[in-house]
Structures are given as C-alpha cells and as structure tokens.
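Rx N-terminal domain-containing protein: structure, please.
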Amino acid sequence: MGKVKEGALTLWMEILKDVAYDVLDEFSFENMRQRMYFQKRLMKKVFNFFSWSYPLAFHVKMAHKNKEIDGMLSKPVRDMKMFIFLEGHVNDHLVSKMHRETDAHIDDSEFVGREKEKLILTSMLIGLNNQEILLLIPIVGIGGLGKMIL
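Here you go.
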C-alpha cells in the first residue's frame, strides 16, 4: 500500500475512532443521567407527576441520538469504500500471540535464566540478621526484562 493510501487509512481510522468515542460518551452520559435521576427520586421519595414519562423521554432522546450517530457514521462508511478490506475470519489464536502479555499471571516454567538472581534475593532476605533492617528492594527496568519473575 502506498504512503498516500496509508495516510488516508490512518486518517479514516482516526475519524472512525472519534465517532466511536462520541457514541460511547453519549450513551455513558445518558446512562449516568438516568442513574442520577432514579437516585434523586429515591432520596426525595416524592412522587413526580411526570415520572412515568421519563423512560419514554429517554427512548425518544436516544432515538434522536441514534440518528445523529448514524449521520456521523455515514461519511466514514462512504469513505471506507476507497480502501480494499478483506472480509473473512480471524484466527483468534494468532491474534492472541501477537499481543504481548502484560499481566502478573506468569508460568514460571516458561522462563529460564533467573535462578541466580532468585537465589541472591532470597538469600539476602532470609540471611538478614537482627542488625540490618531491610525495608524495600526495588526492582526496576524496562518492560520485558523479567522483573515480575523475580
């Protein structure tokens, strides 16, 4: 793919991302507003004559928002036709291998070469006598060095 087309694709994806964030913001705001409305209603314990209309108003408002969202999405969908996207299924196993694991759930059998460092740290912690007080052993370094294994 040429640089011009890559730039256009990047711009298109940014526009699509902005629209997606706008959609999420709208629904999150309405959801929060609805929760606040019902909390306020419970706290006051006063029956509001128009309370029956709130769910109806919510649906009408969200239908209007859906039309706005549809309008925001129409241009990126039209622009999408200038790119050639391949349709098909993605192998989930391959996709999961592409993403680097960043959580603390690590299988120790997968790692080799940290035995010496483990021994040094454990002997340092176990071998402390009463005269030395060790409060903290900082382990720092860039991602992927194996700090979590230690």
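Notes: The two ends are 44 Å apart (CA to CA).
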